[in-house]
């Protein structure tokens, strides 16, 4: 019904404050994956198992089987699968109960990567499972002597310690309440169903009445977990008559049958004030359980509130307020902490609404979806699908794509002669729904795709899968994640009439960091920033660059897989918004904005080049491990950091095949122009190929390194994958970084020296020669894969040499 569109949108876009969850475990943990589906012993025969499996299979785009889902998880790796689940769940904060003894559970800090706020540095609440041991009928008159005797009985029992003495537990529980009250902390209490060995009758929250009447505990804040199922009515009653009692319906969702979930939540609201009811996922061990809880809770809450509106119990505005209370506001007040939106101040309905099981067309004005992929030449290509067809079939089955499409050049759509790609055949471009978002064009969305040869099986030439493969190797072999920040440089050009012809001219002619440049471009830049922030892409700063009409946008750090997608979308948004204003944005590495073909002997062409300098760090369990420690310190770097950076430096000429992918890329490498020509590095030195970076005022403490041989025409997944290949080689061989160079001593560098051992490649041809003499790259990336890239490069080089004008001026 149309009148519920606003309510539906509010439920689907509200960010969840998840106040009761547990640690996620490593991929190789012995915790059974099926446990995230059901509490039952025969998990695969329960209704919630069958429903949950269907939800997760759709999330991953896999076949409907446990094996297929697990294969997808293994293929994605822990970080990417967790990111997929949390992104879809739209969780803005996590409170984690880390008391569970789980095999290979990850520490709380690790979870900060997926939720903007994770309370890792302090206790936010107490938690009790006394209901699962001796029940909720707390003896408020228990004495110290009785408690001591109870503990003695446990310790002298001769069995493995499992504390189940009622006197001792009642005593501990009451004193925990006293401590919680003194520190103004709430107490979470497990009630109703949960563990298999509980006496369900004793878990009825009505057993708490004696304690709730005790004046010592009237100022405590208590929350009854698990919807108290099957005692939902009893819990609702307690919340209605005792000010200190609140309710949480986590775990019941998604463990119950659908109609029972709805009826239980309705029962909670029969007596209890609606601002005393909240939701948590009770996520456990697997990120998929967080997703399932959030996904199904939204459906249930919408159904409950819609029915309340139909019955006349609530108005639409009142229901909208309840949505915020249940999923976020009540929790914030109850636990007394602030959560900033992970999506800045952008309106929720402008955000990506990926992973909705059935898109409701009435919720959006989108009519077309761009299904995108990047080829070997770095071109952004797409097919545009009407939204109805996208939702009905394409989002699940993808589109057929000739394998030859990966071998097209940036110049024309002819297949390169020597790509070694199959002469015939088809790959499926299957949408990755976690990337689906709005584009600057009206009524359109875009989504990135994975290339598959069959369901669940990636094509070897899929750029996004190449990056995933090497990210997984880094994580599996070393427990590390490569994080990347990017300085995105580009020119904004405008069209003018000259001799009755349209020509491109620089947008402005101001110098580096000019305020006038920001004034001139403020409308365009404001739109770009708003659009990027709506996609949860972090912008650290913007400034005008040295070139005429040149700007730089700095993207904040995130893992390489996410950053590759971010970089693709950043380019799309910058170019799209520029076009909207009748301008052209170009990422050409060496482009003369006044129309001069940028050969080095053309004096008018010495305007600044554009790069996409990448800043790289390594993290382990969410902690930056690039920085030196007490165990190892060389040039301010850890052993991990030094070896990874040394690997990149030793293979930088091979990396250039992917990071500097056009002949034009090498026009940017010039003497004393902030772009080095030599294979060297130094601390905080922008004249060199690589530099280490330190926080302000902390010389000698290195947090990351910058590589300058990366430009805006690169295919981001392939460029980042090449960095990983090189860094992994450094780690496996424990490479040492050479001593740093002094950029002020130009006698160290002979600019007339043609010795290729000390210089960066002078052309794309040189880079190709280097990579085919690099045994490590041949072994890891595969000879046929590199031959396919070489074939595209060959046609680019040939055209570049033969063309009398800039062949790239409009395309990039």
TrEMBL record:
**Which organism does this record belong to?**
Solanum commersonii (Commerson's wild potato)
- The GS catalytic domain extends over 463-812
Q: Name one GO biological process term.
A: glutamine biosynthetic process
Report the leader peptide range: none
Lineage, broadest ranks: Eukaryota, Viridiplantae, Streptophyta, Embryophyta, Tracheophyta
Q: Its family?
A: Belongs to the glutamine synthetase family.
- InterPro entries per record: Amidohydro-rel, Gln_synt_N_sf, Gln_synth/guanido_kin_cat_dom, Gln_synth_cat_dom, Metal_Hydrolase
Q: What is this protein called?
A: GS catalytic domain-containing protein
Tree of life domain = Eukaryota
GO MF annotation: an example: glutamine synthetase activity
